[in-house]
Design brief:
Elements: H1 29-33, H2 37-95, H3 101-120
């Protein structure tokens, strides 16, 4: 090994050859100590949190709100329907001269006719098949 002034810089004894060069940073020390970077960092965090919330929590809240209001409205509608049927039966029982069998028969016929009409129209809104015809059962 050469130890004199003619030694090559690539020799294994020089410490500079073993350590890689340090990367240069583009930020200076004054840019970190001054400026508005804390406010910018806080704004970036707030923006990220709002974006995540808008994409996850907001749709879930809308779905949950719709389910709750839908169940509540369905319960109220069913209750009002049952009360209306009871009221009609009682009204017909008071106004018709026979027993309660006549109001039950009248409402039975009405519900049967309405149910039959709805049952017949069940395929009217079905989409057409590939050949252009609707399926019949």
């Amino acid at each position: 090994m050469e130890t004199g002034s003619n030694a090559s810089p690539t020799s294994s004894t020089t410490p500079a050859a073993k350590t890689p060069p340090r990367p240069r940073t583009t930020m200076s020390a004054s840019s970190l100590t001054g400026g508005d970077w804390p406010a910018q960092a806080a704004d970036a965090i707030v923006t990220a949190v709002e974006t995540v919330r808008d994409r996850t929590t907001t749709p879930i809240m809308k779905i949950a709100r719709g389910l709750v209001f839908g169940i509540f409205a369905g319960t109220i509608i069913i209750t009002i329907g049952v009360m209306a049927i009871i009221g009609v039966v009682r009204l017909l029982d008071e106004t018709l001269p026979s027993g309660v069998w006549l109001p039950y028969s009248i409402l039975g016929v009405i519900f049967t006719v309405v149910g039959t009409l709805i049952f017949r129209r069940r395929n009217a809104s079905a989409p057409a098949t590939a050949s252009g015809t609707t399926s019949t059962r």
